[in-house]
Write a structure and sequence with these properties.
This is AB hydrolase-1 domain-containing protein. The protein has about 260 residues and is of the alpha/beta class. It has nine helices and eight strands. It has one domain: 3-Layer(aba) Sandwich (Rossmann fold). The chain has an eight-stranded mixed beta sheet with strand order 1-2-4-3-5-6-7-8, with helices on both faces.
């Protein structure tokens, strides 16, 4: 009988140990910079942003246009792989692709506070370079959380969120329902709260078969935005292949076209 009394205690200890491990290693489950390192044949970067951690280097596509676009990628995305698409699909805008700190050979380690601070600095530099033009912001997956935080701090008129979530903590809670992740997550990327007062134009590209960001989390963001967004749904698309869906680039082009 005494042996059975130890079982609940062992289970409780194991549960606490799993929670502690998740808390300590959570950023390794959110950010995957190891998949974004530059290859030997990578085109040389042509843009630098000085930050306290060091120089963040990236790429400028279609330089010299009055209007600009800043793109924030997913948690394992090589943003440089989008160069050709932005070159040909959005030729009317200068596009800035800057890997996060720790990504693509850039120095530092990612966290919400640092990525958002870098995003604000990037926006301010792009605004300086395009003083009379429009600066649109696009964020995909994790980048939607970064873009939302940026839009809460700077006057962004056009915001595109691709496979976005309401908050990273809520997404994690859906994936790990048996753990108290809402209490454990440090980098919450609460887009609902960030965009409550946002009154610019918003385009949301939704993937109907998204297994990473459940569509319900995207729908909650849509419901709770301060102003009604334009939503384009791709019912057969998943999280990683939504950009291959028919109509994806047309939706971006229409939304970002000059008035």
């Amino acid at each position: 009988m005494r042996r059975w009394l130890w079982l609940p205690a062992l289970l409780a200890i194991g549960y606490v140990a799993v929670c502690a491990l998740l808390y300590v290693r959570q950023r390794s489950l959110i950010y995957f910079p190891q998949y974004t390192q530059a290859g030997q044949n990578e085109a040389a970067t042509d843009f630098e942003l000085p930050r306290p951690v060091g120089l963040l280097r990236g790429w400028v596509i279609n330089p010299g246009k009055p209007d600009a676009l800043i793109y924030f990628g997913g948690n394992a995305e090589r943003v440089q792989d989008n160069r050709e698409d932005f070159l040909t699909r959005l030729p009317q805008r200068t596009v800035y692709l800057l890997p996060y700190r720790g990504y693509g050979g850039n120095p530092g380690s990612p966290s919400q506070a640092d990525l958002v601070a870098d995003a604000v600095a990037l926006h301010d530099e792009v605004r300086r370079r395009h003083p009379h033009g429009d600066v649109a912001v696009v964020g995909r997956s994790l980048g939607s959380g970064v873009a939302s935080q940026l839009a809460a701090q700077r006057p962004v008129r056009q915001l595109v969120l691709i496979t976005p979530f309401d908050s990273l903590a809520d997404v994690a809670a859906r994936h790990y329902a048996w753990l108290p992740v809402r209490w454990l997550v440090k980098d919450r990327y609460d887009s609902v709260s960030a965009l409550k007062a946002y009154r610019g134009r918003v385009l949301i590209l939704r993937a109907g078969r998204d297994a990473v960001v459940p569509p319900a989390n995207t729908d909650r963001l849509v419901r709770d935005l301060g102003s009604p967004p334009t939503v384009v749904n791709f019912p057969a698309a998943g999280h990683d292949d939504v950009s291959l869906a028919s109509g994806y680039w047309a939706a971006l082009q229409d939304f970002l076209a000059p008035p």
